[in-house]
Please model this.
Amino acid sequence: QVQLVESGGGLVQAGGSLRLSCAASGRTLSTNAMGWFRKTPEKEREFVAVISWNGGSTYYADSVKGRFTVSRDNAKNTVYLQMNSLKFEDTAVYYCAVSRQPVVGSAEYEYDYWGQGTQVTVSS
Model:
């Protein structure tokens, strides 16, 4: 079984930056795609970013493109989400997710394991 633990969330002013981390345990995930999603009380959980098994391919939601960067360190079994130029509307609980496949897209059904989430709050 895979366990995912997110960290790095917190309170930041609009225009600021945060870096989220997601550490995986239970098995090596060097052949698995890893992604980030987010959810607010008002909206369904939405896709943010995904990175392929070797980091060679990334894909972002239009709302974060150019501001967020997803990366991974397979030696540490960890995926990161660097968030710059944060906006109030980025406020959400951010979830890390792992797929059994090496390359996947933005649909939730493509992901098999989920973390518990970390809160990001952006003050305007």
